[in-house]
Design brief:
There is one protein chain. The protein has helices at residues 6-13, 31-45, 72-84, 91-108, 114-123, 130-141, 171-177, 183-196, 207-212, 226-252, 265-287, and strands at residues 161-162, 167-168. The protein is an all-alpha fold. β1 (161-162) and β2 (167-168) form a beta hairpin. α8 (183-196) packs antiparallel against α10 and α10 packs across α11. The protein is elongated.
């Protein structure tokens, strides 16, 4: 189909009902067809210098190849073109990658590359669940539905601010500062667990530190502690993901009686305890050598 027909195609796509076409033999005595031919012939004789600009809504302006017409050779050629012309990286993503490098340098003294950061987030299936990896990936891309996201939607601009704290609802606020989420109480529980494990809590721990956790940062003492490092990764990442889920449930709960209620500290603590006990039981099974021929996980990592 030529580009000149695109506006008419988009207009048909906007219709709620279905549109069908039927072929009619030309010059066969059909009144509607004969009249259309007369109008088309008369239009070609007119000296019409007026230019008409058709503007179509973006949601109905479909572009690309049709799957029913796409061949393997054409698809492969298009993929190679996309690989040779990579799209620009989101500005928010670039800023977050730089923040991750800064946080890693402050905690470990290293400056990881972009590829190492993405590899640590996407490939660490041993320590991070699928949901947590997806949460961290969206966190780096600034893709969570909060803060500036709501400014793009009409009648929802008020969601820019936290209704309880009357401040911008950024991920830093949701995970570390929101009173409705009980963040202070929640992170105090994690700090107590770290104290029990003789792990020093990192200074300046914030949302950038959460994004840098999959890099398996060394202990603040400088000595490698695989078990302590893994505990830091699992507990902090699961805890941040839990606070995000509590926020979403608090705002999106269908029950008006429970919507916008503050999180119960006992419920939050029980959630974290259940998560850590489940991971501990899984590790206990994986480190057991009873009835297993394959290599088990080293107990130093637990």
């Amino acid at each position: 189909m030529s580009h000149g027909c695109t506006p008419y195609t988009n207009a048909l796509r906007r219709r709620a009902g279905s549109t069908t076409f039927e072929w009619v033999k030309g010059h066969s005595g059909i009144l509607g067809n004969d009249e259309a031919n007369k109008l088309a012939g008369g239009g070609t004789c007119l000296d019409n210098t007026r230019k008409v600009l058709f503007i179509s809504p973006p949601e109905f302006n479909y572009v690309g190849a049709k799957l029913c017409k796409l061949t393997q050779a054409t698809a492969y050629r298009l993929i190679l073109q996309m690989a040779n012309n990579p799209s620009n990286v989101n500005n928010h993503t670039t800023q977050n990658l730089n923040l991750i490098r800064e946080a890693t340098y402050n905690l470990e003294g290293t400056c990881p590359s972009d590829s190492r950061i993405w590899l640590a987030i996407n490939k660490n299936r041993c320590d991070l669940s699928t949901n947590v990896r997806s949460f961290l990936w969206k966190l780096v891309h600034n893709a969570h539905k909060c803060s500036q996201y709501w400014l793009k939607i009409k009648k929802l601009q008020k969601s820019w601010n936290c209704q309880n704290c009357n401040t911008t609802e950024s991920m830093q606020h949701i995970i570390f500062n929101c009173e409705a989420n009980g963040c202070d109480h929640a992170w105090n529980i994690v700090k107590e667990l770290y104290t029990m494990k003789h792990i020093k809590w990192p200074q300046g721990f914030n949302i950038s530190s959460i994004m840098a956790l999959p890099l398996k940062i060394k202990s603040p003492e400088g000595t490698p502690r695989p078990g302590a490092t893994r505990f830091l990764l699992i507990a902090a990442s699961e805890w941040a993901f839990l606070l995000w889920k509590l926020r979403c449930r608090r705002l999106l709960d269908g029950d008006e009686r429970t919507r916008n209620n503050h999180s119960d500290p006992r419920e939050v603590k029980n959630h974290l305890t259940a998560i850590l006990n489940e991971r501990l039981e899984r590790d206990r099974i994986l480190t057991s050598t009873i009835g297993k021929d394959t290599k088990t996980r080293p107990y130093q990592q637990i």
